Amino acid sequence: MPESTPVTVLAGGVGGAKLAEGFARVGDDLTVVVNTADDAQVYGLSISPDLDTVMYTLAGIANPDTGWGIAGDTVAVLDQLRRLGQDTWFTLGDADLATHVFRSDRLRRGVPLSMVTADLAAALGVRARLVPMTDDPVATLVDTPAGRFGFQEYFVARRHADTVTALTFDGVADSRPAPGVLEAVRDADVVAIAPSNPFVSVGPILAVPGVRDALATSGAWRVAVSPVIAGAALKGPAAQMLADLGHEVSALAVARLYAGLIDAMCIDERDRDLAPAIADLGLQVIVTNTVMGDGPDRERFARELLTGRDR
Amino acid sequence: MPESTPVTVLAGGVGGAKLAEGFARVGDDLTVVVNTADDAQVYGLSISPDLDTVMYTLAGIANPDTGWGIAGDTVAVLDQLRRLGQDTWFTLGDADLATHVFRSDRLRRGVPLSMVTADLAAALGVRARLVPMTDDPVATLVDTPAGRFGFQEYFVARRHADTVTALTFDGVADSRPAPGVLEAVRDADVVAIAPSNPFVSVGPILAVPGVRDALATSGAWRVAVSPVIAGAALKGPAAQMLADLGHEVSALAVARLYAGLIDAMCIDERDRDLAPAIADLGLQVIVTNTVMGDGPDRERFARELLTGRDR
Protein backbone atom coordinates (compact mmCIF):
# COMPACT_ATOMS: atom_id res chain seq x y z
CA MET A 1 0.00 0.00 0.00
CA PRO A 2 1.38 3.44 -0.80
CA GLU A 3 1.93 5.56 2.28
CA SER A 4 -0.61 8.06 1.03
CA THR A 5 -3.53 5.63 0.68
CA PRO A 6 -6.49 7.34 2.35
CA VAL A 7 -7.73 5.18 5.21
CA THR A 8 -10.74 5.88 7.42
CA VAL A 9 -11.33 4.03 10.67
CA LEU A 10 -14.69 3.98 12.43
CA ALA A 11 -13.73 3.67 16.06
CA GLY A 12 -14.93 3.34 19.60
CA GLY A 13 -12.42 3.36 22.44
CA VAL A 14 -9.59 0.93 23.08
CA GLY A 15 -10.10 -1.38 20.09
CA GLY A 16 -10.52 1.59 17.82
CA ALA A 17 -7.43 3.24 19.22
CA LYS A 18 -5.28 0.16 18.61
CA LEU A 19 -6.41 -0.23 15.01
CA ALA A 20 -6.00 3.51 14.38
CA GLU A 21 -2.46 3.36 15.72
CA GLY A 22 -1.72 0.41 13.44
CA PHE A 23 -2.82 2.37 10.37
CA ALA A 24 -1.05 5.51 11.60
CA ARG A 25 2.20 3.51 11.62
CA VAL A 26 1.59 2.29 8.07
CA GLY A 27 0.50 5.45 6.26
CA ASP A 28 0.04 9.14 6.67
CA ASP A 29 -3.47 9.74 5.32
CA LEU A 30 -5.61 8.53 8.20
CA THR A 31 -8.98 9.77 9.37
CA VAL A 32 -10.49 8.32 12.52
CA VAL A 33 -14.22 8.89 12.97
CA VAL A 34 -14.99 8.35 16.63
CA ASN A 35 -18.12 7.50 18.58
CA THR A 36 -19.31 10.30 20.85
CA ALA A 37 -22.49 8.72 22.17
CA ASP A 38 -20.54 7.70 25.31
CA ASP A 39 -19.74 11.35 26.02
CA ALA A 40 -20.93 12.57 29.37
CA GLN A 41 -20.78 15.33 31.90
CA VAL A 42 -18.73 14.16 34.86
CA TYR A 43 -18.13 16.53 37.79
CA GLY A 44 -19.50 19.20 35.44
CA LEU A 45 -16.80 18.53 32.85
CA SER A 46 -17.43 17.41 29.28
CA ILE A 47 -15.72 14.09 28.77
CA SER A 48 -15.38 12.26 25.45
CA PRO A 49 -13.96 8.89 26.47
CA ASP A 50 -13.60 7.35 23.03
CA LEU A 51 -12.12 10.46 21.42
CA ASP A 52 -9.61 10.74 24.24
CA THR A 53 -8.64 7.08 24.15
CA VAL A 54 -7.91 7.30 20.44
CA MET A 55 -6.18 10.68 20.84
CA TYR A 56 -3.93 9.60 23.71
CA THR A 57 -3.05 6.39 21.87
CA LEU A 58 -2.14 8.21 18.66
CA ALA A 59 -0.19 10.76 20.71
CA GLY A 60 1.77 7.95 22.33
CA ILE A 61 0.75 8.95 25.86
CA ALA A 62 -2.01 6.41 26.56
CA ASN A 63 -1.80 4.37 29.72
CA PRO A 64 -0.76 0.95 28.43
CA ASP A 65 -2.22 -0.86 31.44
CA THR A 66 -5.78 0.42 31.17
CA GLY A 67 -5.95 1.46 27.52
CA TRP A 68 -7.61 4.70 28.64
CA GLY A 69 -6.19 7.71 30.44
CA ILE A 70 -2.65 9.05 30.29
CA ALA A 71 0.44 7.03 31.23
CA GLY A 72 1.88 7.97 34.61
CA ASP A 73 -1.03 10.24 35.43
CA THR A 74 -1.73 11.27 39.02
CA VAL A 75 -5.10 11.71 40.74
CA ALA A 76 -4.62 14.74 43.00
CA VAL A 77 -7.80 16.46 41.82
CA LEU A 78 -9.86 13.32 42.25
CA ASP A 79 -8.45 12.72 45.73
CA GLN A 80 -9.38 16.24 46.76
CA LEU A 81 -12.84 15.99 45.17
CA ARG A 82 -13.37 12.93 47.35
CA ARG A 83 -12.30 14.90 50.42
CA LEU A 84 -14.85 17.53 49.43
CA GLY A 85 -17.56 14.91 49.64
CA GLN A 86 -17.91 14.32 45.91
CA ASP A 87 -18.82 10.80 44.86
CA THR A 88 -15.76 10.04 42.73
CA TRP A 89 -17.22 7.10 40.85
CA PHE A 90 -15.54 8.14 37.62
CA THR A 91 -11.75 8.14 37.68
CA LEU A 92 -10.13 11.10 35.96
CA GLY A 93 -6.38 11.60 36.19
CA ASP A 94 -4.92 15.07 36.55
CA ALA A 95 -3.36 15.41 33.11
CA ASP A 96 -6.46 13.77 31.62
CA LEU A 97 -8.57 16.30 33.49
CA ALA A 98 -6.73 19.11 31.70
CA THR A 99 -8.21 17.76 28.45
CA HIS A 100 -11.70 17.96 29.95
CA VAL A 101 -11.16 21.44 31.39
CA PHE A 102 -9.87 22.62 27.99
CA ARG A 103 -12.74 20.97 26.11
CA SER A 104 -15.50 22.04 28.54
CA ASP A 105 -14.42 25.66 28.43
CA ARG A 106 -14.43 25.81 24.64
CA LEU A 107 -17.67 23.87 24.18
CA ARG A 108 -19.38 26.27 26.58
CA ARG A 109 -18.11 29.15 24.50
CA GLY A 110 -19.71 27.61 21.43
CA VAL A 111 -16.70 26.02 19.73
CA PRO A 112 -17.84 22.79 18.01
CA LEU A 113 -16.46 19.52 19.38
CA SER A 114 -14.76 18.79 16.05
CA MET A 115 -12.73 22.00 16.31
CA VAL A 116 -11.88 21.43 19.96
CA THR A 117 -10.80 17.90 19.09
CA ALA A 118 -8.61 19.10 16.23
CA ASP A 119 -6.95 21.64 18.53
CA LEU A 120 -6.34 19.06 21.25
CA ALA A 121 -4.98 16.50 18.80
CA ALA A 122 -2.70 19.04 17.16
CA ALA A 123 -1.37 20.17 20.54
CA LEU A 124 -0.56 16.56 21.39
CA GLY A 125 1.21 15.99 18.10
CA VAL A 126 -1.39 13.67 16.56
CA ARG A 127 -1.01 13.73 12.78
CA ALA A 128 -4.11 11.71 11.90
CA ARG A 129 -7.40 13.56 11.47
CA LEU A 130 -9.43 12.79 14.57
CA VAL A 131 -13.10 13.54 14.01
CA PRO A 132 -16.09 13.08 16.29
CA MET A 133 -19.01 11.39 14.52
CA THR A 134 -21.05 14.54 15.15
CA ASP A 135 -20.80 17.94 16.80
CA ASP A 136 -24.34 17.48 18.13
CA PRO A 137 -25.16 15.89 21.47
CA VAL A 138 -25.99 12.20 21.25
CA ALA A 139 -26.33 10.03 24.33
CA THR A 140 -26.52 6.27 24.52
CA LEU A 141 -29.23 5.21 26.96
CA VAL A 142 -29.18 1.64 28.18
CA ASP A 143 -32.41 -0.07 29.14
CA THR A 144 -32.01 -2.84 31.68
CA PRO A 145 -34.33 -4.71 34.05
CA ALA A 146 -33.06 -2.28 36.72
CA GLY A 147 -34.11 0.74 34.67
CA ARG A 148 -32.63 3.08 32.10
CA PHE A 149 -29.09 4.34 32.58
CA GLY A 150 -26.76 6.75 30.83
CA PHE A 151 -23.93 4.86 29.21
CA GLN A 152 -21.21 5.79 31.68
CA GLU A 153 -23.47 4.91 34.59
CA TYR A 154 -24.19 1.51 33.02
CA PHE A 155 -20.59 0.97 31.97
CA VAL A 156 -18.50 2.41 34.81
CA ALA A 157 -20.68 2.81 37.88
CA ARG A 158 -22.63 -0.45 37.36
CA ARG A 159 -19.68 -2.23 35.71
CA HIS A 160 -21.81 -3.30 32.71
CA ALA A 161 -23.32 -6.06 34.82
CA ASP A 162 -26.95 -5.42 33.87
CA THR A 163 -28.74 -7.32 31.15
CA VAL A 164 -29.29 -4.96 28.24
CA THR A 165 -32.83 -5.04 26.89
CA ALA A 166 -32.62 -2.08 24.53
CA LEU A 167 -30.32 0.73 23.44
CA THR A 168 -31.33 4.25 22.46
CA PHE A 169 -29.04 6.83 20.90
CA ASP A 170 -30.80 9.89 22.21
CA GLY A 171 -30.52 12.83 19.84
CA VAL A 172 -28.99 10.88 16.97
CA ALA A 173 -31.94 11.34 14.60
CA ASP A 174 -31.45 15.11 14.73
CA SER A 175 -27.66 14.99 14.61
CA ARG A 176 -25.54 15.87 11.62
CA PRO A 177 -22.23 14.26 10.78
CA ALA A 178 -19.31 16.41 11.87
CA PRO A 179 -17.50 18.20 9.04
CA GLY A 180 -15.49 15.72 7.01
CA VAL A 181 -17.17 12.55 8.26
CA LEU A 182 -19.18 11.72 5.15
CA GLU A 183 -16.28 12.62 2.87
CA ALA A 184 -13.93 10.43 4.90
CA VAL A 185 -16.27 7.46 4.53
CA ARG A 186 -17.08 8.08 0.87
CA ASP A 187 -13.70 9.07 -0.48
CA ALA A 188 -11.25 6.82 1.37
CA ASP A 189 -9.59 3.89 -0.36
CA VAL A 190 -10.06 1.79 2.77
CA VAL A 191 -12.71 2.05 5.47
CA ALA A 192 -12.08 -0.14 8.49
CA ILE A 193 -14.65 -0.77 11.20
CA ALA A 194 -12.56 -1.24 14.33
CA PRO A 195 -12.99 -4.21 16.71
CA SER A 196 -15.17 -1.98 18.85
CA ASN A 197 -18.57 -2.81 20.29
CA PRO A 198 -20.94 -3.05 17.29
CA PHE A 199 -23.90 -1.83 19.33
CA VAL A 200 -22.64 1.04 21.47
CA SER A 201 -19.42 2.09 19.71
CA VAL A 202 -19.92 1.55 15.98
CA GLY A 203 -23.74 1.58 16.18
CA PRO A 204 -24.02 5.28 17.05
CA ILE A 205 -21.60 6.28 14.26
CA LEU A 206 -23.70 4.39 11.72
CA ALA A 207 -26.87 5.93 13.19
CA VAL A 208 -25.79 9.49 12.47
CA PRO A 209 -27.95 10.42 9.47
CA GLY A 210 -26.00 9.93 6.25
CA VAL A 211 -23.17 7.79 7.59
CA ARG A 212 -24.72 4.37 6.97
CA ASP A 213 -25.61 5.37 3.42
CA ALA A 214 -22.18 6.81 2.82
CA LEU A 215 -20.62 3.54 3.93
CA ALA A 216 -23.06 1.39 1.98
CA THR A 217 -22.31 3.32 -1.22
CA SER A 218 -18.65 4.10 -0.60
CA GLY A 219 -16.15 3.22 -3.31
CA ALA A 220 -13.70 2.17 -0.60
CA TRP A 221 -12.72 -1.37 0.24
CA ARG A 222 -14.58 -1.81 3.53
CA VAL A 223 -13.48 -4.23 6.20
CA ALA A 224 -14.74 -4.88 9.70
CA VAL A 225 -12.71 -6.50 12.44
CA SER A 226 -14.60 -8.74 14.84
CA PRO A 227 -14.41 -7.69 18.48
CA VAL A 228 -15.59 -11.19 19.34
CA ILE A 229 -12.95 -13.91 19.46
CA ALA A 230 -13.82 -17.50 20.30
CA GLY A 231 -17.17 -16.45 21.74
CA ALA A 232 -15.83 -13.70 23.99
CA ALA A 233 -14.94 -10.03 23.73
CA LEU A 234 -11.39 -8.96 24.49
CA LYS A 235 -12.75 -6.06 26.50
CA GLY A 236 -16.08 -4.65 27.54
CA PRO A 237 -19.64 -5.90 27.22
CA ALA A 238 -19.84 -6.71 23.48
CA ALA A 239 -20.29 -10.45 24.01
CA GLN A 240 -22.87 -9.97 26.74
CA MET A 241 -24.78 -7.45 24.63
CA LEU A 242 -24.87 -9.83 21.67
CA ALA A 243 -26.41 -12.46 23.93
CA ASP A 244 -28.75 -10.03 25.68
CA LEU A 245 -30.03 -8.67 22.39
CA GLY A 246 -30.73 -12.13 20.96
CA HIS A 247 -27.68 -12.72 18.84
CA GLU A 248 -25.27 -15.61 18.77
CA VAL A 249 -22.01 -14.62 20.50
CA SER A 250 -19.63 -15.03 17.60
CA ALA A 251 -17.75 -13.27 14.85
CA LEU A 252 -20.43 -14.61 12.49
CA ALA A 253 -23.10 -12.66 14.34
CA VAL A 254 -20.93 -9.53 14.06
CA ALA A 255 -20.51 -10.17 10.34
CA ARG A 256 -24.28 -10.43 9.99
CA LEU A 257 -24.68 -7.04 11.75
CA TYR A 258 -22.39 -5.40 9.21
CA ALA A 259 -23.53 -7.31 6.10
CA GLY A 260 -24.42 -4.90 3.30
CA LEU A 261 -21.97 -2.32 4.61
CA ILE A 262 -18.65 -4.14 4.21
CA ASP A 263 -16.66 -6.07 1.66
CA ALA A 264 -14.56 -8.10 4.05
CA MET A 265 -14.69 -9.44 7.57
CA CYS A 266 -11.56 -10.01 9.59
CA ILE A 267 -11.76 -12.75 12.22
CA ASP A 268 -9.31 -14.32 14.56
CA GLU A 269 -7.50 -17.56 13.80
CA ARG A 270 -9.41 -19.19 16.65
CA ASP A 271 -12.61 -18.57 14.69
CA ARG A 272 -11.30 -20.08 11.45
CA ASP A 273 -14.20 -22.52 11.32
CA LEU A 274 -16.63 -19.60 10.97
CA ALA A 275 -15.02 -18.50 7.69
CA PRO A 276 -17.31 -20.51 5.37
CA ALA A 277 -20.48 -19.18 7.01
CA ILE A 278 -19.17 -15.62 6.80
CA ALA A 279 -18.17 -16.16 3.17
CA ASP A 280 -21.74 -17.31 2.57
CA LEU A 281 -22.84 -13.79 3.50
CA GLY A 282 -20.98 -12.64 0.39
CA LEU A 283 -18.01 -11.37 2.33
CA GLN A 284 -14.32 -11.82 1.82
CA VAL A 285 -12.91 -13.36 5.00
CA ILE A 286 -9.54 -12.44 6.44
CA VAL A 287 -8.25 -14.82 9.09
CA THR A 288 -5.36 -13.72 11.25
CA ASN A 289 -4.28 -13.01 14.81
CA THR A 290 -6.63 -10.13 15.61
CA VAL A 291 -5.29 -9.51 19.13
CA MET A 292 -3.25 -6.32 18.84
CA GLY A 293 -0.42 -5.94 21.32
CA ASP A 294 2.07 -3.11 21.27
CA GLY A 295 2.61 -0.57 18.50
CA PRO A 296 4.57 -2.83 16.13
CA ASP A 297 1.94 -5.55 16.56
CA ARG A 298 -0.80 -3.05 15.74
CA GLU A 299 1.13 -2.13 12.60
CA ARG A 300 1.48 -5.84 11.78
CA PHE A 301 -2.27 -6.20 12.03
CA ALA A 302 -3.03 -3.11 9.90
CA ARG A 303 -0.68 -4.43 7.19
CA GLU A 304 -2.41 -7.81 7.23
CA LEU A 305 -5.78 -6.15 6.76
CA LEU A 306 -4.44 -4.19 3.81
CA THR A 307 -2.95 -7.35 2.33
CA GLY A 308 -6.51 -8.67 2.35
CA ARG A 309 -7.56 -5.75 0.21
CA ASP A 310 -4.79 -6.31 -2.29
CA ARG A 311 -5.61 -10.01 -2.61
CA MET B 1 -14.13 37.66 76.06
CA PRO B 2 -16.43 34.69 76.45
CA GLU B 3 -15.80 32.04 73.84
CA SER B 4 -19.30 32.50 72.50
CA THR B 5 -19.03 36.22 71.75
CA PRO B 6 -20.38 36.63 68.22
CA VAL B 7 -17.67 38.08 65.99
CA THR B 8 -18.04 39.04 62.35
CA VAL B 9 -15.04 39.73 60.14
CA LEU B 10 -15.31 41.55 56.82
CA ALA B 11 -12.52 40.03 54.80
CA GLY B 12 -10.63 40.05 51.56
CA GLY B 13 -7.95 37.45 50.95
CA VAL B 14 -4.73 36.93 52.88
CA GLY B 15 -5.15 39.70 55.49
CA GLY B 16 -8.74 38.68 56.04
CA ALA B 17 -7.76 35.05 56.36
CA LYS B 18 -5.13 35.80 59.02
CA LEU B 19 -7.52 37.88 61.11
CA ALA B 20 -10.29 35.32 60.73
CA GLU B 21 -7.95 32.58 61.90
CA GLY B 22 -7.00 34.70 64.91
CA PHE B 23 -10.64 35.05 65.94
CA ALA B 24 -11.34 31.40 65.18
CA ARG B 25 -8.65 30.48 67.70
CA VAL B 26 -10.20 32.76 70.35
CA GLY B 27 -13.90 31.94 70.10
CA ASP B 28 -16.36 29.69 68.40
CA ASP B 29 -19.01 32.09 67.14
CA LEU B 30 -17.31 33.53 64.08
CA THR B 31 -18.82 34.68 60.81
CA VAL B 32 -16.54 35.75 57.99
CA VAL B 33 -18.16 37.81 55.24
CA VAL B 34 -15.91 37.63 52.23
CA ASN B 35 -15.42 39.75 49.15
CA THR B 36 -16.46 38.04 45.92
CA ALA B 37 -15.85 40.90 43.49
CA ASP B 38 -12.48 39.30 42.63
CA ASP B 39 -14.23 36.13 41.50
CA ALA B 40 -13.55 35.15 37.95
CA GLN B 41 -13.86 32.46 35.33
CA VAL B 42 -10.44 30.96 34.71
CA TYR B 43 -10.05 28.11 32.20
CA GLY B 44 -13.87 27.99 32.35
CA LEU B 45 -13.87 27.32 36.09
CA SER B 46 -15.51 29.56 38.70
CA ILE B 47 -12.82 30.73 41.07
CA SER B 48 -13.43 32.69 44.28
CA PRO B 49 -9.92 33.64 45.36
CA ASP B 50 -10.80 35.44 48.59
CA LEU B 51 -13.30 32.84 49.78
CA ASP B 52 -10.78 30.10 49.11
CA THR B 53 -7.92 31.87 50.84
CA VAL B 54 -10.03 32.32 53.97
CA MET B 55 -11.38 28.78 53.72
CA TYR B 56 -8.02 27.10 53.25
CA THR B 57 -6.57 29.16 56.10
CA LEU B 58 -9.38 28.27 58.49
CA ALA B 59 -9.10 24.63 57.39
CA GLY B 60 -5.39 24.67 58.19
CA ILE B 61 -4.37 23.68 54.67
CA ALA B 62 -3.31 27.05 53.24
CA ASN B 63 0.06 27.33 51.61
CA PRO B 64 2.08 29.24 54.22
CA ASP B 65 4.53 30.56 51.63
CA THR B 66 2.05 32.25 49.32
CA GLY B 67 -0.95 32.76 51.62
CA TRP B 68 -3.17 31.41 48.83
CA GLY B 69 -3.58 27.92 47.46
CA ILE B 70 -3.15 24.64 49.32
CA ALA B 71 0.05 23.58 51.05
CA GLY B 72 2.01 20.97 49.14
CA ASP B 73 -0.22 21.21 46.11
CA THR B 74 0.94 19.95 42.71
CA VAL B 75 0.31 21.48 39.28
CA ALA B 76 -0.21 18.46 37.00
CA VAL B 77 -3.41 19.85 35.46
CA LEU B 78 -1.83 23.23 34.81
CA ASP B 79 1.26 21.64 33.25
CA GLN B 80 -0.93 19.64 30.89
CA LEU B 81 -3.11 22.67 30.07
CA ARG B 82 0.09 24.41 29.03
CA ARG B 83 1.01 21.46 26.81
CA LEU B 84 -2.44 21.77 25.24
CA GLY B 85 -1.58 25.32 24.23
CA GLN B 86 -3.57 27.04 26.98
CA ASP B 87 -2.13 30.33 28.25
CA THR B 88 -1.66 29.34 31.89
CA TRP B 89 -1.37 32.84 33.27
CA PHE B 90 -3.35 31.94 36.38
CA THR B 91 -1.77 29.32 38.60
CA LEU B 92 -4.18 26.75 39.99
CA GLY B 93 -2.88 23.77 41.94
CA ASP B 94 -4.44 20.35 41.51
CA ALA B 95 -6.13 20.08 44.91
CA ASP B 96 -7.16 23.73 44.62
CA LEU B 97 -8.62 22.96 41.23
CA ALA B 98 -10.88 20.36 42.83
CA THR B 99 -12.50 23.22 44.75
CA HIS B 100 -13.16 25.05 41.50
CA VAL B 101 -14.47 21.95 39.71
CA PHE B 102 -16.80 21.29 42.66
CA ARG B 103 -17.96 24.91 42.81
CA SER B 104 -18.35 25.38 39.05
CA ASP B 105 -20.47 22.28 38.71
CA ARG B 106 -22.85 23.30 41.47
CA LEU B 107 -23.12 26.94 40.44
CA ARG B 108 -24.03 25.83 36.92
CA ARG B 109 -26.74 23.64 38.38
CA GLY B 110 -28.17 26.68 40.17
CA VAL B 111 -26.88 26.16 43.70
CA PRO B 112 -26.17 29.59 45.24
CA LEU B 113 -22.53 30.41 46.00
CA SER B 114 -23.33 30.70 49.72
CA MET B 115 -24.56 27.10 49.81
CA VAL B 116 -21.64 25.82 47.78
CA THR B 117 -19.28 27.67 50.10
CA ALA B 118 -20.94 26.22 53.20
CA ASP B 119 -20.64 22.71 51.74
CA LEU B 120 -16.98 23.19 50.84
CA ALA B 121 -16.13 24.68 54.24
CA ALA B 122 -17.95 21.90 56.08
CA ALA B 123 -16.15 19.25 54.04
CA LEU B 124 -12.83 20.83 54.94
CA GLY B 125 -13.70 20.97 58.64
CA VAL B 126 -14.09 24.74 58.90
CA ARG B 127 -16.23 25.57 61.92
CA ALA B 128 -16.66 29.30 61.29
CA ARG B 129 -19.52 30.46 59.09
CA LEU B 130 -17.93 31.46 55.80
CA VAL B 131 -20.28 33.65 53.78
CA PRO B 132 -19.80 35.34 50.42
CA MET B 133 -20.90 38.98 50.47
CA THR B 134 -23.52 38.12 47.85
CA ASP B 135 -24.75 35.21 45.76
CA ASP B 136 -25.07 37.53 42.80
CA PRO B 137 -22.30 38.17 40.28
CA VAL B 138 -20.23 41.26 41.04
CA ALA B 139 -17.01 42.02 39.19
CA THR B 140 -14.39 44.60 40.04
CA LEU B 141 -13.30 46.44 36.91
CA VAL B 142 -10.08 48.41 37.10
CA ASP B 143 -9.64 51.49 34.93
CA THR B 144 -6.04 52.32 34.11
CA PRO B 145 -4.28 54.45 31.50
CA ALA B 146 -3.83 51.18 29.57
CA GLY B 147 -7.56 50.48 29.55
CA ARG B 148 -10.12 48.69 31.68
CA PHE B 149 -9.27 45.27 33.09
CA GLY B 150 -11.03 42.60 35.06
CA PHE B 151 -9.56 42.36 38.54
CA GLN B 152 -7.60 39.16 38.06
CA GLU B 153 -6.17 40.43 34.81
CA TYR B 154 -5.07 43.65 36.53
CA PHE B 155 -3.86 41.84 39.64
CA VAL B 156 -2.31 38.62 38.36
CA ALA B 157 -1.61 38.94 34.66
CA ARG B 158 -0.47 42.59 34.83
CA ARG B 159 0.97 42.22 38.36
CA HIS B 160 -1.00 45.28 39.62
CA ALA B 161 1.59 47.53 37.97
CA ASP B 162 -0.91 49.90 36.31
CA THR B 163 -1.96 53.20 37.81
CA VAL B 164 -5.57 52.85 38.94
CA THR B 165 -7.75 55.74 37.82
CA ALA B 166 -11.13 54.32 38.82
CA LEU B 167 -12.79 51.20 40.20
CA THR B 168 -16.21 49.85 39.26
CA PHE B 169 -18.00 47.01 41.04
CA ASP B 170 -20.01 45.81 38.10
CA GLY B 171 -23.35 44.38 39.17
CA VAL B 172 -23.12 45.46 42.78
CA ALA B 173 -26.06 47.88 42.63
CA ASP B 174 -28.37 45.00 41.72
CA SER B 175 -26.82 42.52 44.13
CA ARG B 176 -28.38 41.36 47.37
CA PRO B 177 -26.43 40.41 50.47
CA ALA B 178 -26.07 36.65 50.79
CA PRO B 179 -28.29 35.03 53.44
CA GLY B 180 -26.97 35.91 56.88
CA VAL B 181 -24.72 38.79 55.88
CA LEU B 182 -26.85 41.65 57.21
CA GLU B 183 -27.66 39.72 60.38
CA ALA B 184 -23.98 38.96 60.94
CA VAL B 185 -23.12 42.65 60.67
CA ARG B 186 -26.06 43.87 62.74
CA ASP B 187 -26.20 41.28 65.47
CA ALA B 188 -22.55 40.53 66.24
CA ASP B 189 -20.90 41.86 69.39
CA VAL B 190 -17.77 42.65 67.41
CA VAL B 191 -17.39 43.50 63.74
CA ALA B 192 -13.81 43.65 62.53
CA ILE B 193 -12.78 45.02 59.16
CA ALA B 194 -9.73 43.00 58.23
CA PRO B 195 -6.43 44.55 57.08
CA SER B 196 -7.54 43.95 53.51
CA ASN B 197 -7.50 46.41 50.65
CA PRO B 198 -10.09 49.08 51.51
CA PHE B 199 -10.91 49.69 47.85
CA VAL B 200 -11.07 46.29 46.18
CA SER B 201 -11.56 43.91 49.12
CA VAL B 202 -13.63 45.72 51.74
CA GLY B 203 -15.08 48.25 49.30
CA PRO B 204 -17.19 45.73 47.37
CA ILE B 205 -18.59 44.22 50.60
CA LEU B 206 -19.69 47.67 51.78
CA ALA B 207 -21.13 48.40 48.33
CA VAL B 208 -23.58 45.50 48.47
CA PRO B 209 -26.91 47.25 49.10
CA GLY B 210 -27.71 47.19 52.81
CA VAL B 211 -24.28 46.26 54.16
CA ARG B 212 -22.95 49.78 54.70
CA ASP B 213 -26.14 50.78 56.51
CA ALA B 214 -26.09 47.62 58.57
CA LEU B 215 -22.54 48.39 59.65
CA ALA B 216 -23.25 52.09 60.28
CA THR B 217 -26.21 51.23 62.54
CA SER B 218 -24.87 48.01 64.04
CA GLY B 219 -24.91 47.65 67.81
CA ALA B 220 -21.56 45.88 67.58
CA TRP B 221 -18.21 47.29 68.59
CA ARG B 222 -16.67 47.92 65.17
CA VAL B 223 -12.96 47.98 64.59
CA ALA B 224 -10.91 48.26 61.43
CA VAL B 225 -7.32 47.12 61.08
CA SER B 226 -5.12 49.21 58.82
CA PRO B 227 -3.55 47.32 55.94
CA VAL B 228 -1.11 50.22 55.63
CA ILE B 229 1.90 50.17 57.95
CA ALA B 230 4.51 52.92 57.84
CA GLY B 231 3.29 54.08 54.46
CA ALA B 232 3.31 50.68 52.78
CA ALA B 233 1.00 47.70 52.43
CA LEU B 234 2.17 44.33 53.69
CA LYS B 235 0.85 42.74 50.51
CA GLY B 236 -0.84 43.78 47.32
CA PRO B 237 -1.63 47.15 45.78
CA ALA B 238 -3.41 48.93 48.66
CA ALA B 239 -0.71 51.58 49.12
CA GLN B 240 -0.43 52.24 45.39
CA MET B 241 -4.22 52.47 45.08
CA LEU B 242 -4.40 55.00 47.92
CA ALA B 243 -1.86 57.13 46.08
CA ASP B 244 -3.41 56.61 42.65
CA LEU B 245 -6.85 57.55 43.91
CA GLY B 246 -5.62 60.75 45.57
CA HIS B 247 -5.28 59.67 49.17
CA GLU B 248 -2.36 59.96 51.53
CA VAL B 249 -0.68 56.55 51.92
CA SER B 250 -1.16 56.05 55.62
CA ALA B 251 -3.27 54.40 58.28
CA LEU B 252 -4.86 57.81 58.80
CA ALA B 253 -6.17 57.79 55.24
CA VAL B 254 -7.61 54.32 55.83
CA ALA B 255 -9.24 55.54 59.03
CA ARG B 256 -10.82 58.40 57.08
CA LEU B 257 -12.22 55.93 54.56
CA TYR B 258 -13.95 54.01 57.33
CA ALA B 259 -14.98 56.98 59.52
CA GLY B 260 -18.69 56.79 60.33
CA LEU B 261 -18.67 53.02 60.08
CA ILE B 262 -16.32 52.07 62.91
CA ASP B 263 -15.74 52.73 66.58
CA ALA B 264 -12.05 51.93 66.67
CA MET B 265 -9.06 51.87 64.38
CA CYS B 266 -6.16 49.53 64.93
CA ILE B 267 -2.78 50.71 63.67
CA ASP B 268 0.70 49.37 63.88
CA GLU B 269 3.19 50.51 66.48
CA ARG B 270 5.25 52.07 63.73
CA ASP B 271 2.34 54.44 63.05
CA ARG B 272 1.97 55.46 66.69
CA ASP B 273 2.36 59.14 65.76
CA LEU B 274 -0.83 58.96 63.69
CA ALA B 275 -2.91 58.09 66.76
CA PRO B 276 -3.88 61.66 67.70
CA ALA B 277 -5.09 62.50 64.20
CA ILE B 278 -7.11 59.29 64.07
CA ALA B 279 -8.54 60.03 67.53
CA ASP B 280 -9.58 63.42 66.17
CA LEU B 281 -11.87 61.56 63.76
CA GLY B 282 -13.78 60.43 66.86
CA LEU B 283 -12.25 56.96 66.82
CA GLN B 284 -10.74 54.88 69.56
CA VAL B 285 -7.19 54.01 68.52
CA ILE B 286 -5.57 50.66 69.21
CA VAL B 287 -1.83 50.58 68.72
CA THR B 288 -0.12 47.21 68.54
CA ASN B 289 1.99 44.98 66.34
CA THR B 290 -0.47 44.44 63.47
CA VAL B 291 1.78 42.10 61.50
CA MET B 292 0.25 38.65 62.00
CA GLY B 293 2.65 35.73 61.75
CA ASP B 294 1.68 32.15 62.44
CA GLY B 295 -1.52 30.89 64.06
CA PRO B 296 -0.62 31.73 67.68
CA ASP B 297 0.45 35.22 66.58
CA ARG B 298 -2.88 35.69 64.79
CA GLU B 299 -4.62 34.67 68.01
CA ARG B 300 -2.44 37.13 69.94
CA PHE B 301 -3.55 39.88 67.59
CA ALA B 302 -7.25 38.98 67.80
CA ARG B 303 -7.04 39.01 71.60
CA GLU B 304 -5.40 42.45 71.54
CA LEU B 305 -8.19 43.80 69.36
CA LEU B 306 -10.77 42.43 71.76
CA THR B 307 -8.90 43.92 74.71
CA GLY B 308 -9.40 47.24 72.94
CA ARG B 309 -13.14 46.67 73.03
CA ASP B 310 -13.14 45.86 76.70
CA ARG B 311 -11.15 48.95 77.55
From TrEMBL, chains A, B:
Assigned EC number: 2.7.8.28
InterPro entries registered for this protein in UniProt: CofD, CofD-like_dom_sf, FbiA/CofD
Gene Ontology molecular function terms on file: LPPG:FO 2-phospho-L-lactate transferase activity
Pfam short name (any one): CofD
Keywords for the protein's UniProt record, in alphabetical order: Magnesium, Transferase
HAMAP family referenced in this protein's UniProt entry, alphabetically: CofD
Protein name: 2-phospho-L-lactate transferase
Organism: Occultella glacieicola
